[in-house]
Amino acid sequence: MSIIVRREEEIVIYCKGADSEIMSVLSRSFMDSALGSSVVRNSRAHLEKFSTQGLRTLCLAKRTLSLVEYDDWLTRHMEIENDISSPDREAELTRSMCDIEREFSLLGVTAIEDRLQEGVEETIDALREAGIQVWLLTGDKMETAINVARSCGLFPSTSSIYVIETENDVEKAYVQTHQAPLNDIYCVVLSSTSLHLLEQSHDLLITVLQSCLSVLCYRMTPSNKAEIVKMVKKTLKGKVLAIGDGANDVSMIQCADVGIGISGQEGMQAVMAADFAIARFRYLRKLLLVHGHWCYDRLARGFLYFLYKNAVHLFCGLIHIRSSHLIFSISMTNPRQRLERFLIQTFFRGN
Question: How many domains does the chain have?
Fold first, then answer.
């Protein structure tokens, strides 16, 4: 995400984002300078340190624009934005943003602690005991994501972890999991670059995913999250429940069979797009395993009730098919007459 600030005659664009994205748009002159190489080296060291501690990291960068360069870019960008009839408008807007978001100088990194809510680990254990496979989709880097997965109980301390990015990783994971003891548990880590394997319905990958305890997907964009939900429904042939608390989870929630939004500090976008809303993640346990079971039981009983009711009604008609006698009194079947009789009886009883 970027913002352009103008102070007197100086125009500066500030950008924040994941380290992989920011590092790829740094200017070569900055990277080659003594100051720039030192900043990049120290920033990478801090990123690794923060990630191993489970902190969520971001990189900050800036670039000074000349007045002519900014005016030229703004003119082109507004022309594209106002041309609503163009079929390639979104792609052209993306290219226009990429033209200005380049040649940055790295300012540094930030790290914040995103504390887990109370009862997260117990809720995941309860879902797992109910036979539900839990996937974690996050935009964090791999080290941070794995640390969070361990802290919330998604990855038990005794489990093996297989990171899958290429077809060779899939084959290695398949061989190792089938040679391991039956009581051995393992978890799978997928990156955004390995989604094409799931999209191609890779047989070995599907076998590995169906047999693993949990799955972690890192460096996921909102569109990546929605794609995973669609591919899981298609390849694994299962019902998907998606739960999230931010705007980045809206597309994922809308693509799932059941969407649940958590209200909180991230805003209300996820709640507005969801089928159900809860205030804490731990409430999912009761919502799904208690009220969900009751709802299923009520639907099953209601279905049987309507089935037998209609069968009995039809059976009476079949028995008296050759008779001209009314099976039921008209006053019993006419709602208007039943209402009038009820009102008359109530009126005379009151008097």
Answer: 3
Q: Which of 112, 137, 167 is the last residue of a domain?
A: 112
Same domain as 257, residue 336: no
Whether 11 and 71 map to the same domain: the answer is yes
139 and 269 belong to one structural domain: yes
Q: Which residues pair with 105 in a beta bridge?
A: 62
**Residue 56, both tokens:** 């969520």
Please name which of 112, 190, 120 lies closest in space to residue 151, comparing C-alpha atoms: 120
Sign of the CA dihedral running 149, 150, 153, 157:
positive
What is residue 104's DSSP assignment?
B
Quick: pLDDT tens for 117-170: 899 999 999 999 999 999 999 988 888 899 999 999 999 988 899 999 888 888
Cβ pair 252, 269 in contact under 8 A: no
Q: 350 burial class (0-12, 13-18, 19+ CB within 10 angstroms)?
A: exposed
Strand locations in the chain, DSSP E?
2-7, 10-17, 56-65, 105-112, 134-137, 160-164, 186-191, 214-218, 241-244, 258-262, 276-278
Q: Tell me the β-bridge partners of 215.
A: 135, 188
Beta strands 2-7 and 214-218 are unpaired
How far is Cα 260 from Cα 242, in angstroms, rounded to an integer? Answer: 6
Backbone angles phi, psi at 43, to 5 degrees: -65, -40
As given in the structure block, the two tokens for residue 195 are 């989604």
Range of the domain at 138: 120-291
pLDDT per position as a tens digit, 166-206: 888 888 888 888 887 777 899 999 988 888 887 776 788 88
pTM of the predicted structure, to 2 decimals: 0.76
Q: Is 155 in contact with 142 (CB distance < 8 Å)? A: no
- Determine the Cα–Cα distance for residues 138 and 221; give it in Å rounded to an integer: 8
Answer for the pair 189, 164: CB distance below 8 angstroms, yes or no. Answer: yes
